[in-house]
What does this fold into?
Amino acid sequence: MRGPSQLTSLLAAPALLAALAGPASALSCMAPDPATSYTRAAEAAERYVVIEGRLSYDPASMPPVTSPSEAPLERHTTGRIEGKALSSGGFDIPFATEVEMDFTCHGPWCTGNVPQGDAVMFLEQTEAGYRLELTPCGGWHFAEPTSAQLSALRRCHRGQSCG
It folds into this structure.
């Protein structure tokens, strides 16, 4: 059996290590889903269009991250989206355009390349065209949406319950 001084030493070691460790740094994100993003877009001052379609771009055209800073760092490239825009009838308006893709870093967390192919995307309408914002926490691009997610978006757009 250990004596009281040995037990005190054993208990003090983890406390000392915890005190010496620097503050942990982590990015905390709520898991995004298309219905929540629809609500965010509907409440935003910016105007958004919701597209179900195919995203294509050249990942090699993305500028590399040289040194993420504390301030958000953006990298830009151009992509192409072909699909259908959401209307009260569903995803039924043909849509094809070039899109400005903005990949954002927050501190050391950066958005990597997003999957090309089928997706639901929330595009901000700007004076110059359309913008797809891609952040480390996600929320504006959903690869391979499920039929349940697409149904929820149609309900949201008709003013019904999004859930």
Remarks:
- The chain has a mean pLDDT of 82.
